[in-house]
């Protein structure tokens, strides 16, 4: 995987000033947790919010221990408040 | 095509009721959540709802199915509004048709709570002083600190609803 695209929602997008962040993955990014750690290093302003985010590939929640999805896209969903 | 559960335009309640169907049902429970003009003491002028739409659609359909099974009711319909809403606009509608009123009320309450707590939808409130904030919500990560799926970790029930 050469690049990872993070989709940001709600206050995460506001903190980053962008709906998407694209990062070069380099080597060593195997799991979802690896990718989230990469994002925290690249965007320190998001770091404190990432622990309470769910990670989603397509329409499915993935766990930190899961392998990164093959397409390199990961959505980060902060705590929800519908209704 | 399956019925819509997310709507970028105002929600029409009447078509959701299916009053010309379900002759086996003697109870209809309807909850409509509307935009309120205050939150924790601050004046609210309007709201914006955003969602991760693919997962939100899936979650809401799962809530409908699970509610039908759990309460043994034939009809559960939920629609959540997205986009910019004014005070008084409908944010969410939930209709349950059931044989009797008790399970209609219970199923309706359960379904609305489940959507609030699990569907990836966010509410940004805009205040009278020109500022805005996302309402504190429920963490839907299911592998935090070894927690069981959907551990219910949010600070304040008073902060939403």
UniProtKB/TrEMBL annotation, chain B:
Its EC number is 2.8.1.12. InterPro entries: MoaE_sf, Mopterin_biosynth_MoaE. The keyword Transcription regulation does not apply. It catalyses: 2 [molybdopterin-synthase sulfur-carrier protein]-C-terminal-Gly-aminoethanethioate + cyclic pyranopterin phosphate + H2O = molybdopterin + 2 [molybdopterin-synthase sulfur-carrier protein]-C-terminal Gly-Gly + 2 H(+). SUPFAM superfamilies: Molybdopterin synthase subunit MoaE (SSF54690). It is an enzyme of class 2 (transferase). One of its GO terms (biological process) is Mo-molybdopterin cofactor biosynthetic process. Pathway: Cofactor biosynthesis; molybdopterin biosynthesis. Pfam families: MoaE. Heterotetramer of 2 MoaD subunits and 2 MoaE subunits. Also stable as homodimer. The enzyme changes between these two forms during catalysis. Belongs to the MoaE family. This is Molybdopterin synthase catalytic subunit. It comes from Luteibacter yeojuensis.
């Amino acid at each position: 995987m050469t690049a990872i695209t993070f989709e940001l929602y709600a206050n995460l997008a506001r903190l980053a000033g962008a709906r998407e962040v694209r990062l070069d993955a380099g080597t060593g990014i195997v799991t979802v947790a690896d990718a989230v750690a990469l994002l925290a290093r690249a965007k320190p302003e998001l770091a404190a919010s990432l622990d309470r985010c769910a990670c989603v590939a397509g329409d499915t929640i993935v766990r930190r221990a899961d392998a990164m999805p093959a397409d390199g896209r990961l959505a980060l969903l902060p705590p929800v408040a519908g209704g | 095509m399956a019925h819509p559960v997310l709507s970028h335009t105002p929600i029409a309640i009447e078509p959701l009721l299916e009053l010309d169907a379900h002759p086996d049902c003697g109870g209809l429970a309807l909850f409509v959540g509307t935009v309120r003009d205050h939150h924790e003491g601050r004046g609210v002028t309007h709201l914006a709802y955003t969602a991760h739409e693919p997962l939100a659609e899936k979650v809401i359909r799962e809530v409908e199915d699970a509610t039908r099974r759990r309460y043994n009711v034939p009809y559960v319909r939920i629609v959540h509004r997205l986009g910019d809403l004014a005070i008084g606009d409908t944010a969410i509608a939930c209709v349950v048709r059931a044989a009797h009123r008790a399970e209609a009320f219970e199923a309706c309450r359960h379904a609305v709570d489940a959507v609030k707590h699990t569907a990836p939808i966010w509410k940004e409130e805009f205040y009278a002083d020109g500022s805005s904030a996302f309402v504190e919500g429920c963490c839907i990560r299911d592998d935090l600190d070894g927690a069981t799926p959907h551990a219910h970790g949010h600070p304040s029930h008073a902060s939403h609803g």
